[in-house]
Amino acid sequence: MEIIRQASLLHPLLSEYRDQGFSCGFVPTMGNLHAGHLALVDAAAERCDKVVVSVFVNPLQFGPNEDLATYPNTPEDDENALSAHGTAVLYRPSVEDVYPVGLESQTRVEVPGLSDILCGQSRPGHFIGVTTVVNRLFNQVQAEKAFFGKKDYQQYLIIRKMVSDLAMNIEVVGIDTVRLDNGLAMSSRNNYLSASEQAQAAWLYQVIQDTARQYQDDPSSASAILDRGVDELEKKGFVADYLTIRRQSDLNEPQAGDVELVVLAAAWLGKTRLIDNLEFVLT
Ligand code: PAF
């Protein structure tokens, strides 16, 4: 596995791959890799000849009171895991390399509307930071396909819309969430949870599943079902940010006739904000 720290060194290597006719799959990450990230790497390796993984903790997507300074950093474990999963290139740039003009002067990319709802409402500016960095990384890596986890469902849809709206020449592939045995979605932020909180955190997915089941039985009672779900979360010790049912395609409220839906939730457990979701189809 090649480890590259500067974009200027990435270009020659990746053009060599292209000249040799290899296809490239890209997995952008912020490091502290877990089984969820490695599922993205494996999916990329199944579909592409060479897998490029970036590890970059993007300051632009963290709010002033968020966890940028304490975001878990495990470079050696990440390198070992990526190399064991057949990664060809680990791109680990510095902030200066990704944002050579400085954070303030950096041109931003915004997907309006979709970036302002749900997590965008609680984390203003977060998705502008995500789309800006992903756009820049896409341009640096120039892969044919990029792989994103559906645990970050809103992020996944925003990236797809950015790629479509800007006619970017890359295919965005969404990969299913990887879960612990108790149902808790894998996330780097699970590291912030104590052992007892990790067990408690599994209730988030439980409530999401119950919500989807109840809605399938009786879509006309959506608001009562969601109220019950929020009550349940609070009884289990969460402070709910949102619990909602939306259309899979654009995260708008479902209209009559919409069948491809998703339950999305965000909730605080102590100082940790967790998100999760479940796609379902109304039959
Ligand atoms: O999902 C993440 O880890 C980040 O938001 C991403 C896509 C790597 C951009 O920094």
Question: What this model shows, in words?
Answer:
This protein is of the alpha/beta class and about 280 residues long. The chain folds into two domains: about 1-175, HUPs (Rossmann fold), CATH 3.40.50; about 190-275, Pantoate-beta-alanine ligase, C-terminal domain (Pantoate--beta-alanine Ligase, Chain: A,domain 2), CATH 3.30.1300.10. The chain is built from ten helices and nine strands. It has helices at about 5-20, 35-45, 75-85, 95-100, 120, 125-140, 155-165, 195-200, 205-215, 220-235, and strands spanning about 1-5, 25-30, 50-55, 90, 145-150, 170-175, 240-245, 260-270, 270-280. The strands form two sheets. Strands 1-4-3-2-5-6 form a six-stranded parallel β-sheet, with helices on both faces. Helix 6 packs across helix 7 and helix 9 (about 205-215) packs antiparallel against helix 10 (about 220-235). The longest helix is centred in the middle third of the chain and has 16 residues, at about 125-140. The N and C termini lie far apart (about 45 Å). The model has no long low-confidence stretch (mean pLDDT about 95). It binds pantoate (PAF). Pantoate binds near residues 30 and 134.
By CATH, the topology of the largest domain is Rossmann fold
Largest sheet, order of strands side by side? 1-4-3-2-5-6
Beta fraction = 15-25%
Number of helices: 10
Bound molecules: pantoate
Structural class: alpha/beta
| Overall mean confidence score, pLDDT | 97
Q: What is the global morphology?
A: globular
> How does the major sheet shape up?
6 strands, parallel
Q: Helicity range of the residues?
A: 25-40%
- Quick one: how many beta strands? 9
